[in-house]
């Protein structure tokens, strides 16, 4: 797979944190990196040039949702996902595996495939490993994911083991079904918060030789301390020379802790979802703009941020937009939150390169906790 190369530029001597460069057909991604979520080929409310201005390098879209509408055949006919959504940088597509978890009431699951009843119109969508790969090849993302089964965090051991083994079985079928050589297919390590099951999953997947590996099945109801502990015993099983992706995570403190433990790539809906609901992430912790305390506040949202929301508008104005139910409020806070996440991963890259990750982590956590 000559279209991709992962270079480790620095590894922190006191922690497992690392900084690198991931070469893809649509550009280089500096890691650690955060991918804004554009489920339906759009990061809600934001133009591609606005995303780029935040420092975003790569975005994520979703196989299941795009298969339902507009259909992967239409995206392919329109020139692929990059042209369709006018995003020139790298794109990653999830396989639909998370919907196996989140839409459990609307699907039937066997070793052969998952069959969904559409949450839109009730029609059936079959996702086998082969179908998931074919849809993602039609979409044309740079990085595609194996179809997996994500079990609930509190599931019984027998079901977690079955999900691990099915995920490994499906990964082999995904690998064998892949036709395009310009897409990096990642295997996904499952296993809940069990060290035995995470080890079993990694040992089944690593010999398959994927160009990158994801850690799935976290941030699905477990306590943060359990997430971090799971990363402690999972990440060491993943190849050092390949990118490591923690799926669907998360809060700023989760990203900080995961980079500390050796993760390279992240995605999460929180920046835009919380932005649409009047909650901003800032250097001093969360700000809830519907609170009356901001009614006459002339200060910027975050003095350390250079995004449009922070350099042009006051907290009072931003609060007014939400109280008046003006859509600009959600747009500006989504923009700010993504810019905040991009600054966080840039700062982490700099900390790795300067050998100060432990100090950066301690200082940042103390600062956020002081405001909680």
UniProtKB/TrEMBL annotation:
One of its GO terms (molecular function) is metal ion binding. The keyword Metal-binding applies. Binds 1 zinc ion per subunit. One of its GO terms (cellular component) is cytosol. It comes from the Bacteria. Residues 15-369 form the tRNA-guanine(15) transglycosylase-like domain. Its cofactor is Zn(2+). Its EC number is 2.4.2.29. It holds the Pfam family TGT. Residues 248-254, 272-276 are annotated as: RNA binding. The active site is at residues 94, 267. It catalyses: 7-aminomethyl-7-carbaguanine + guanosine(34) in tRNA = 7-aminomethyl-7-carbaguanosine(34) in tRNA + guanine. Keywords: Glycosyltransferase, Metal-binding, Queuosine biosynthesis, Transferase, tRNA processing, Zinc. GO terms for biological process: tRNA queuosine(34) biosynthetic process. The keyword Nucleotidyltransferase does not apply. Belongs to the queuine tRNA-ribosyltransferase family. NCBIfam families: Q_tRNA_tgt, tgt_general. Catalyzes the base-exchange of a guanine (G) residue with the queuine precursor 7-aminomethyl-7-deazaguanine (PreQ1) at position 34 (anticodon wobble position) in tRNAs with GU(N) anticodons (tRNA-Asp, -Asn, -His and -Tyr). Catalysis occurs through a double-displacement mechanism. The nucleophile active site attacks the C1' of nucleotide 34 to detach the guanine base from the RNA, forming a covalent enzyme-RNA intermediate. The proton acceptor active site deprotonates the incoming PreQ1, allowing a nucleophilic attack on the C1' of the ribose to form the product. Homodimer. Within each dimer, one monomer is responsible for RNA recognition and catalysis, while the other monomer binds to the replacement base PreQ1. HAMAP family: Q_tRNA_Tgt (MF_00168). This is Queuine tRNA-ribosyltransferase. It comes from Fuerstiella marisgermanici. The gene is tgt.
């Amino acid at each position: 797979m000559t279209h991709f190369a992962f270079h480790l530029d620095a590894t922190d001597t006191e922690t497992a944190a690392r900084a690198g460069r991931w070469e893809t057909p649509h550009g280089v991604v500096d890691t650690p990196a955060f991918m804004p979520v554009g489920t339906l080929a759009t990061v809600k409310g934001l133009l591609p040039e606005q995303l780029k201005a935040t420092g975003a390098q790569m975005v994520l879209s979703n196989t299941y949702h795009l298969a339902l509408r507009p259909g992967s055949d239409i995206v392919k006919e329109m020139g692929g996902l990059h042209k369709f959504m006018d995003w020139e940088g790298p794109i990653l597509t999830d396989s639909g595996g998370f919907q196996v978890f989140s839409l459990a009431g609307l699907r039937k699951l066997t070793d052969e495939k998952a069959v969904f009843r559409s949450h839109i119109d009730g029609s059936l969508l079959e996702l086998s490993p082969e179908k998931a790969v074919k849809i993602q090849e039609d979409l044309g993302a740079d990085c595609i994911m194996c179809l997996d089964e994500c079990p609930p965090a509190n599931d019984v051991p027998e079901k977690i083991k079955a999900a691990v083994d099915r995920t490994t079985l499906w990964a082999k079928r995904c690998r064998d079904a892949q036709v395009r050589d310009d897409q990096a297919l990642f295997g996904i390590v499952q296993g809940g918060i069990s060290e035995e099951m995470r080890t079993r999953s990694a040992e089944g997947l690593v010999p398959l030789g994927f160009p990158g590996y994801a850690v799935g099945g976290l941030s699905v109801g477990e306590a943060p301390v359990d997430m971090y502990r799971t990363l402690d015993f999972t990440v060491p099983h993943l190849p050092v020379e390949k990118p490591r992706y923690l799926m669907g995570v998360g809060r700023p403190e989760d990203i900080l802790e995961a980079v500390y433990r050796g993760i390279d790539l992240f995605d999460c809906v929180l920046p835009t979802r919380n932005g649409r609901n009047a909650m901003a992430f800032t250097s001093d912790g969360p700000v809830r703009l519907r609170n009356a305390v901001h009614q006459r506040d002339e200060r910027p949202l975050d003095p350390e941020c250079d995004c449009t929301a922070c350099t042009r508008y006051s907290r009072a104005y931003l609060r007014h937009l939400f109280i008046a139910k003006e859509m600009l409020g959600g747009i500006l806070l989504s923009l700010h939150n993504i810019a905040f996440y991009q600054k966080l991963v840039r700062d982490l890259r700099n900390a790795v390169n300067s050998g100060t990750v432990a100090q950066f982590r301690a200082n940042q956590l103390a600062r956020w906790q002081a405001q909680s």
